[in-house]
Write a structure and sequence with these properties.
Blueprint (H helix, E strand, L loop, with lengths): L21 E3 L8 E6 L2 E12 L5 E7 L8 E7 L4 E5 L38
Antiparallel strand pairs: 1-3, 2-3, 2-6, 3-4, 4-5
Length: 126
């Protein structure tokens, strides 16, 4: 049994909590990451957003596979706590805007060669 406790997840902000937090994001291709202790192992967790609350509380929203089943979920953890540690930083600065240029692009369809053979009409010369 490990001496590291599994971290407690934080609930989302609600209006009754007071002023909303400032939210910071990074480009999808250059996000910092944390590691979350879950099911007896450290799990890699890229940061989706950092939430800075007016009272000084900091929470990180991450994408993480908590059980090692390849099912990635979104979770938010208050920082610091023993079951959450830094994996790596980002080469990009965070932003408070929803700048779509920072979000990454949709993948492009692969380029395909035109079909050859009887189904293409090239076999008959037409």
């Amino acid at each position: 049994m490990s001496a590291i406790p599994e971290p407690e997840q934080s609930r989302p902000w609600r209006p009754e909590d007071g002023p909303p937090p400032q939210v910071w994001t990074w480009p999808k291709g250059d996000r910092p990451a944390l590691e979350v202790w879950s099911a007896g192992r450290w799990r890699y967790a890229p940061v989706a957003a950092r939430h800075d609350y007016p009272d000084g509380t900091v929470r990180y929203q991450v994408d993480v596979d908590l059980r090692g089943t390849t099912m990635v979920t979104s979770a938010t953890y208050e920082w610091p706590q023993p079951g959450v540690r830094v994996s790596h930083g980002s080469g990009s600065g965070p932003s408070r805007t929803a700048d779509e240029r920072r979000q990454g692009n949709m993948p492009h369809a692969p380029r395909r060669r035109p079909p050859e053979g009887p189904q293409s009409g090239t076999a008959t010369g037409t």
